[in-house]
Amino acid sequence: MSEAVTSIRLAGVGGQGILVASEVLCDVLLACGHDVKKSEIHGMAQRGGTVNSDVRFGKKVYSPVIPHGEVDVLVAFEQMEALRYLPSVKEGGVVVINDQRILPSAVASGKAEYPEDVVARVAQRAGTVVSVDALSLAKSAGSQRSVNVCLLGALSRFIAVEESVWEAMLTERFREKGLAANLKAFALGRSAE
User: 6-101+121-191: what fold?
Assistant: First the structure.
């Protein structure tokens, strides 16, 4: 294991399964022997507000707080959240973006416009940008609720963990309900270009 600490931020809108995704991510990293710290911000999650979860791992992690500009990987469950948290990503970092747009109330009411060039703006700062149509992939896997697991699949390409460990933790988490759809969504996300 490296002495370095890796910092991951999962960000989206309430109801997208961000907290479940961060729990699975932590389980995977703990199963690999990493020291893991996690923090969450729920905001107005029940009203469609922003939700994020920060996960830091390595040989020894002293705090769950990610210093500004030090996010190694940002997983944006919604396009606008990629822009909101882009300044937190280190120069040359990785950004995984769900293609889905969830219109904020100001945009839905016509008081503001949704930016058209999200991926291009993100690419100006990030070293690697992966744009995933996670909703379509999750639907094809059998459950639109598996968007979060699809995005974990896309994230998994940037973390040195065997796919079998991810599958074992997903099986443990979802064995009661939705296991087949979640395993398929993970595989589709992992292979998304």
Answer: Pyruvate-ferredoxin Oxidoreductase; domain 3 (3.40.920)
